[in-house]
């Protein structure tokens, strides 16, 4: 039991700060400004489920999938960072007319989830950083315990807790918007979009740096 508790705390302490649903709430609001409050709650629930599936898949089979396609973690970082840059730039250049009530009414119910997995789950919520950490933790757990049933249960509990925190932070993010008002939220949206661009550049650079270091090692 002690080992299971340590594994639970390890997963939460390693992945939760990277997923950071509290810090991701402004980004979520920035990208769903045209959605109604009910639609945003439903969307946040779908994102939480998708994030859970993605983290579980990365933890248990991520290493084998990347090996099968011959993809390295630095390449995942570069690709995911580029997507974040594109998302942040598009939102930064967007005018504020998309956030009014008429735009909210124009969204059909079946269109609410069309961006749930991409880009709101991947790479906005569960990005290259959290995927790479989940893959690493899963590989280490498999080597130490050969994925003992208690280890599997512990990992699933940890990912459920992370997914639930995503739902809470995203699902009630609109209360922040009502409290601050439209002008303040416009400022936060633009700042969040700019930070999203910066985060994407940083993630891409981390991957590029690792690739360059690997090339230098092969040359020497």
Descriptive account of the structure:
The chain is an all-alpha fold. The protein has one domain (30-219). Helix content is 84%, strand content 0%. The protein has 10 helices and no strands. It has helices spanning 2-19, 21-31, 37-69, 73-92, 101-105, 116-125, 128-145, 149-171, 173-180, 182-219. Helix 1 (2-19) packs parallel to helix 8 (149-171) and helix 2 (21-31) packs across helix 8. The longest helix is centred in the last third of the chain and has 38 residues, at 182-219. It is globular and about 50 Å long. The chain starts with a helix and ends with a helix. The model is unreliable at 97-107 (pLDDT under 50).
Keywords:
220 residues; mainly alpha; 10 helices; globular
Q: Per DSSP, what share of the residues sits in E-state strands of 2 or more residues? A: under 5%
Taking the alpha carbons of the first and last residues, their distance comes to: 47 Å
| Coarse structural class | mainly alpha
Kindly give the count of domains.
Answer: 1
The overall pLDDT, averaged over residues, is 81
Shape from CA axes?
globular
Number of helices: 10
List SSEs in N-to-C order. Answer: HHHHHHHHHH
The gyration radius over C-alpha positions equals: 19 Å
Poorly predicted parts: 97-107
Q: Could you give a short account of the major beta sheet? A: none
> Could you give the count of β-strands?
0
Helix proportion? over 70%
